[in-house]
Fold each of these.
Amino acid sequence: MSASDYQPVIGLEVHAQLLTGSKIFCGCSTRFGAPPNHNTCPVCLGLPGVLPTLNQRVVEFAIRAGLALGCAIRLTSVWSRKNYFYPDLPKGYQITQYDLPICEGGRLSIEAGEGSREIRIRRIHMEEDAGKSIHDGASGHSLVDLNRAGVPLLEIVSEPDLRSSDEAAQYLKELREVLVYLEINDGNMEEGSFRCDANVSVMRKGASALGVRTELKNMNSFRFVRQAIDYELARQIDLLERGGTVVQETRLWDPQRSETRPMRSKEEAHDYRYFPEPDLPPLEISQALVDAVARSLPELPQAKARRFQARYGLPAYDVKILCAERPLADFFEASAALYTDYKKLSNWFLGELLRLRHEEGGGFPWKIRPEQLAGLLVRVDRGEISASAAKDVLGAMFRTGEDPASIIQTRGLGQISDTAVIEAAVEQALAQHPAEAARYRAGKKQVFGFFVGQVMKAMKGKGNPALINEVLKKKLG
Amino acid sequence: MTPPVLNLSMLELAGALARREISSVEATHACLGRIEAVDPRVKAFLRIDAEGALAAAEASDNRRQSGALSALDGVPVAVKDLFLTEGVETTAGSKILAGFIPPYDATAVKLLKGAGLPILGKLNQDEFAMGSSTESSAFFPTHNPWDLSRTPGGSSGGSSAAVAAREIFGALGTDTGGSIRQPAALTNTVGLKPTYGRLSRYGVIAFASSLDQVGPITRSVLDAAALLQILAVHDPKDSTSSTAPVPNYMAEIEGGVSGMRLGVPREYFVPGMDPEVEHAVRQAASDLERMGAKLVDVSLPHTRYALAAYYLIAPAEASANLARYDGVRYGLRAQVAGGLREMYCRTRAAGFGPEVKRRIMLGTYALSAGYYDAYYLKAQKVRTLIREDFLRAFQKVDAIVSATSPVTAFKLGEKVDDPLAMYLMDVLTLPCNLAGLPGLSVPCGFGTGDLPIGLQILGRPFDESRILRIGRAFEREADFAGRAPPL
Amino acid sequence: MKLTLQEVRHVAALARLSLSPEEEERYRHQLSAILEAMELLKALDTKDVPPTSHAIAEDSVLREDVVVPSIEPAKALANAPDKVGTSFAVPKIIE
């Protein structure tokens, strides 16, 4: 048998850090990058006698995510303790939601082949993040920093509906886009605020029983997710083909060696001994709260993309890029309200604005405003400025937020489109080069370019090229 | 001889302070003197903070002119070593926390300080509140002031002994399965376990989170009410802290028991109960009847399952609560040649005593894969049945009376080798913890050897006013608590 | 006896407690006796009884998302058995 006789079965577990100001169970800041143990208090340090108090914004964000992903929101959800020993887990247990999570049963569409497929979401729940431990080679110690302990997380678990590493990467991209749109997560995989584990197995096509699955960890980019899944699928298939069996285990992605390896510390499977958290009463939320959150949901990326295609008639490629970030899409719409050649506008976005953003680094809000962009494009249409000069103006507007008119003025970038002025310059050029004029009229059409150059020179490069062409053609005959 | 001031109740001392008959500093010195005289034999204290207490006493004296902070401003007390006290070592009676200096005060401690009470020190207890005799303290056992060869009960044995011995005027303890009420009964003091959630647990080292409650141990019911009033404040730091309105506990406390229906549960006369205890309690009940209460026979049919349910739920929660004692951030750390895991195992082996280890293992087992349903979940269901027994009974009666402890104070060493025999000491007290109800123990007599006997009064949730009123009525008629031990 | 030596060792490992052989045997006896005493719960029919995890029902008061100043690292580490800079130091975790 070959690889094509096997069906990959992939489920993803995403842990997304929430953009609240304070931690889930205490008032410490969630700010990233502080020196070790500078954002801690007795509660998140797990000192004797401390108790958790729930941050209401975490609940709101969980509801937001649940509604955006089409989940049912549980009005009564329960907290649990997940018990295990690790130095970055100060209490020796994590407060999470096991039995009755806040959200269940949602879906997210991904592109598959020509159409789209719905990937089902099993559940979403709230929990606290653990701290960080790093190995200090010099001292032979492990060093524990609890700044991250207690940062709120949403765990989003999909059903094993994904069928390839490509689909997995797509699902992650779409999910990340939704969470960033909702302004509950910053989508940063490298820094670890958006983390992904994969459950991977294979089954023979047509078989009814699922294969044994392994859990993959330590994939902190989309590329690694793809690579790790592909490696693992190949490894499992190869193993099965040679008559072996897949062991249920957790494997770490090793980016140096591009392979997955079993985690050595898992000699005994974890028995987490979940039980209901006695320090927190069951969470009761009202339908009124859920409705209020529903009303405040922004238009989500896929819906926005559909609307853009319909409203602006733009191709799918353009729309995908414009809608990938909510502030970008908003900027486009505000510009489109003032300048209605949507395709041209989109070209300026995809071509120039995004390039500028990449080079200059521009977090939203940008200095340039939609009406300034629209104003610039109108001037180009009117011939007041050449397209290439407009690129310079755009760059200046992006960097300084200055109006196009004043930039054009200051830099003398204005284009002369006054027919009379152009006629005069053309006539002068023709008068100065009668021999060339004669050669053109005799059939040497390439001389045309010479005259265009001459006229441009005389006009110090400010002549409207299209008009110059038109007048020259008329005068030369 | 005990200086007379030390025989005053908290409120009586407060009155004397107000009348300038004595100063808080003088009262504090009297306590310190008494501690020096008798604590070497009683061993109620783990550590004394004379400096801190005297400073607070002096501050109290200085502000007496302008106005007291509370009804008990300037009255010296002490707290069980389960309460975190900022800057003062707190051990929970365990080696694993020897040397631990908390960076914050428990809410209850903050409230005491805010009310102007000097805190003399930290009181001995069974390790992590697990026990009924204070013999499992990692440091030393406490001795019952009524008979130094016997235990004062537990786990708040130090608190009850110190109050009984007149070393302090009042104390705070905690009660998870009877740890305030049982030692109160064995030492002739008053012990109150409020409704679960009435008092904040923030800063109290957790044993079993759904059962633990903070409460006062005093020499009079009035004192218990006064302390309760100071401590009954909603605490936003404790998500299980109740927002139910706090009444004025003194308002009706002298109202008597006329017309009240008192339930006498037949299941609370257990096999192995000391006949003298049974006699004293039945006598107390008929005294209350004489005072105008109506005695009603009630049944709490699931009582006999309560011990098993408790000894599955409490250790299960404890096994998780004690996981943080791992040598990483505070407390004892064993020096090992191996890596982290060995450090964990040796630290906890060295730091925890046998009773704590026993309960951690029992709790871990009850929660473990394959056993959760049969043990922990089953126990939680039985808990529902026990709660429902009480709710049904409270439709017929206003309060329930029984003995607090089935026996009087037992000899040191008598039960340490038989965990089950020790667990039976709580058989009458722990059902109320499972149901979250308030419970009061008041002295109601003495058995052979002058060993104290306690009457337990259980009430509906948040009905502390009523049980205090019943206790007060009884105390007015027969002030057993006024009798001091022969120390 | 209710518990095997194997089970005692397993539970001790889960709870990160090292036990001497003598302790293993002693706890095996004691825990077995205690669990034996729990057997009476089996007699109760609790099929339709909901479990109680919170005896006194209380709606939680949720906390506003406001940052409260953290404690000084020196305070956070004041009781640390071992530290490097402002990090807690522990023997190496063998991964």
Amino acid sequence: MDSLQLLGWSAVAIFALGLLGVIIRRNVLVMLMCMELMLNAVNLSLVVFAQRGNPAEASVLVFLVFVVAAAEIAIAIPIVLLLVRHKRSLDLGAYADLRG
Amino acid sequence: MKYIALLPLAGFLLNGLLGNRLGNRFVSVVGCGLPLAAFAVALAYFFNLQATGAPTIEVAYTWFVAGTDVLEVSFYFDRLTAVMALIVTGVGSLIHIYSIGYMHADKSYARYFAYLNLFLFFMLLLVLGRSLLVLFVGWEGVGLASYLLIGFWFEDPEKAAAGKKAFITNRIGDAGFLLGMFLLYTALGTLDMDRINAAFMANPAPAVSASLVGILLFIGACGKSAQIPLHVWLPDAMAGPTPVSALIHAATMVTAGVYLVARLSGIYMHAPEASAVVATVGCATAFFAATIAVVQTDIKKVLAYSTVSQLGFMFLALGVGAYGAAIFHLYTHAFFKACLFLGAGSVIHALSGEQDIRKMGGLAKKIPVTFWTFAIATAAIAGIPPLAGFFSKDEILWFALASGKGGSALLFAVAALTALLTAFYMFRLLWLTFLGRSRMSAEVEHHVHESPLSMTGVLVILAGLSTVGGFLSIPHVLEPLLPLPPVAEGMQPFHYAVVGASIAIAAAGLAGAAWFFGNGAVRAERVRQAFPVLNRVLMGKYYVDELYESAIHRPLLWISERVFLGLGDRRLFDGALHGLAALGRGTAAALGRVQTGSLHLYAFLVLAGLAFALYLGLRHV
Amino acid sequence: MSDALVLNLVLWLPVLGMAALLAIPAGRPGTIRSVTFWTMVAQLALAAWLYAQFDPAKAGLQFETRLPWIPAWGVYYQVALDGYNVLLVLLTAFLGPLVVASAFTAITKDVKLFYAMVLAIQFTMVGTFVAQDLFLFYLFWEAMLVPMFLIIGIWGGERRIYATLKFVLYTAFGSILMLAALIYLVVSIQQTTGITTFAFADLYRAKLPVDVQLILLSAFGLSFAIKVPMVPLHTWLPDAHVEAPTAGSVILAGVLLKMGTYGFMKIGFPLFPQATQILAPAIAALAVVSIVYGACLALVQTDVKKIIAYSSISHLGYVMLGLVSFNYLGIQGAVMQMVSHGLVAGGLFLMVGMIYERCHTRDLAAYGGLAKILPMYAVFFVVLSLASVGLPTTSGFTGEFLVLMGWFVSAWPQHVAGNSTPLLLSIAAVSGVILGALYMLWLAQRLLFGAVKAPHQPFADLGGRERAILVAIVAAIFWLGLFPAEPLGKTELAARHYQQLVTAPATKMGSGSFSNPSPLTSAPLEKGTVAKMNLTPL
């Protein structure tokens, strides 16, 4: 496997790790970080594909993902902050209000 | 012709709506005047009939049109109608006049006369109707009036219950009546009685079984005329005021069944099985009721059972084809039974409400007019010549034996025995009520007084009619319309023997009663002690009421409550419904368990779904 | 002004009334009551005028309005009077003012909403009867549920939520099936003939294969049978009646139940004649079961309203029996019984309401001897009881007599030919008159006679308003009982039309088509040979 393929697979691995973290981890902030991981893994894979094929489109997409991730973090962190202030806990189990 | 019926209806409306406000005098004048006016109109039609000889038919209006068939409200006046209408209006008016005296202290005076007039209206509809439909309107209407009048003093729950019993028992008969009517309409396309008779008399006869129709209509007659097994309401009906018992339960309403069979003689003449049933039931009822009357202790109950028994005689006559004789007996019975009931009313009035004959006695000298009229009427019903009852009863006994259409020695024997019992218990009643030593309480005895003229006058008139009524010889007046049956072969020579037997029976009854009940009724008491079981059965009226209660009424309620309501409605229908609802709720609850609130689970499910969708989409790539 | 316009006015007047109510502030209940009452009176006047103008000799639709509504689907706003609905529209309009008047003192909270709902339901009920387009009919059918739901749910008794939910869900369940069947019907006609139409006149001419008819009749029939109600789909009725306020019960018993029977008569049976002929014995059997079962259950109730509710089930059994007798007498009897029951049951519920306003209990055991303290009430109650029992001279007799005679006339030839089941059903149905007398007189006895017993004495006898209401109803009952020829003359052509449609023999046609109508027989009454003789009077 050449370096590009290795990068590609590692992007997959990082994505998988992030996904696993979102599903399994109970800490809200950790879940957020894992979601960031997934986004960045996707970015990485986009960079790899840019090297392979279409540099123009892939690069633009990379920047798009950056902007979206930043915007998302800008919204998500305050939401989480408000939630945590309300529930006084970072544990996801405390947010099971939509039960029933 | 419709005014004969409408006049009493006007009386009902006037007295019902305005009577309370306009006072008793107004009520009396309207309440008695209008029936008398109706009598006058009926008389006018009667003379007209004598003059022209042809029946009058009047159509009032069309009730319903079904293609070519028309159900009309129409009236018919022939000789049979004349007899019935004159009796209803004549005896009815007399009883209205009597009521002025009897009910003058009652606070519901206006309501009473309103109901009486309503009764007359419906009874006249019954006898004047040309179509079975109009007859049925009158039939049910008199049932209504009876219900209202029996339960007149409705504050007493027993009296109200008696009214209800009457109506319901009548209704059972009416179910049979309706089926008979339907069958006639199906076969003939008309309910007009004259056309029905013509159809059955014609050749070829209609395709429907005359006997079936006859029996169905007879079931209705049983209900209205208190024959077995629907007789149970009549004795209870004595709960009503005594003039009501006289009018409705002696002279008119209960005779409606007899009138029905006589009117439709065209059917019965061609229905030997139905006629046999009529004769047998009539004869059995007559005997059965007479046996019960022998032991009754309430003056009105004796007369009630006597009415049932005499009606049985009438049906016996109808069953053997002697329709005219039955109407004759109806006629004479109206006179003497009304006289008896009104006399009983006079006694009750004199004794301030006492009705138990064990607490009477020695009244003959104190209330002579009542006594003598009662005695005459008793002799009439017992069949002592030359009073009215002798003629009519003799005709019936004769035809029971000798009619070519069902007469038999058995019928004659039972009928003769019943006649003997009739004479016996009627004289028993006379003795215990009026003669012998007084068994009244001192308080009651002190207040004994003769009734006012409005009451005694009527008694005298009725007693007079009971005396001479027989000479009016009804069967021969009716003969063109209702031919008497042919005499069976070889029977004619026995005619005088039968007449003699009737006189002997009447005399034997008188003598027997005097022997048992004279001298303080000591011998009667001894006989009663000697046959305790028989006595108990008779006093219990053969326990028929109890039988109906346990075999019909209670099971019906049980089934309705336990099976239909408990099992059916609650468990089955509602249960199925609630089960469906529970199913819905249960499914929703089960599916709702996915909503744990755990975001992890939601996220997992989203991703799993996504993966599955991708798989499905890319499967064939 | 043209008659068609008057008919539309009769239909839409309640909506105008509702609009007027919007303008009145809630703090003026007197004005609200007056406006509603006079709106209803106006509707009655117009409906009576239309009734008088209705020409009994003209077949088909009268005073018709037909406007395209959704032309792409073949849906038209088509309303008209014909023999099927003329009496029912008059009945609805007649009961309107009486219902409003009866609620004057009974409803004290949310008065504006209540009268708005009464007007709404009046609108939907009249709409159901006059709609001649299946889509429009279905719309009104469903719309009727909403105001009724609110009436029972807000102003009802203790278990009102249970009762109203049961009523709505049960009825809606049937309606959903009806919707599916309706769509299937129209689509299948459209696929075979290319014509998309919802108009009844067109749907009657469709020829569907028998198996399809059976399925569709079951679906439509289920919905209508729930409404009638027929045993075993009746359990919503006692609860709904008992928990509804008096006005609601009167509307329910007086008109709503007739919508089910009207549905059968106008839609269910004529659209699917061969299926009806096949299912007729079963329907008749269920009708007789309704008669007897309803009466038996009425015998053992302790709640006054429940007794009358079960008696309704019993009475409407007669209507169903008349409709499947396929006999002119039976059909006319069914029509008469529909109207009669509306008056009688409505009247009885009004009377129960009057006593409830005074004593606040429906338990029969709490009452006794009312005839002594309420003599006028007792008179009206006895009259209405006897009308319920079917005493001749009342409308109840006309209906029951014609139905029973009609059924017997059609059952007897079958018995002679070997099939005795209809005759047995006839005998069972006639026994219903005995049971009817039994429970009704028992009720009258417990309520009116005997020792006096009633909570919250002393109270007054009937007031002027109550008397006027009852006199109106009793007058109508006697009019129909004594002179039925004229009203039934107006429905005669419709009854014949119905008879023709449902007794149509199956044609050899396969799937649905709009070809020439099959040669319909006119099915005259079967009579014995004597009818051919010329019977001259004696």
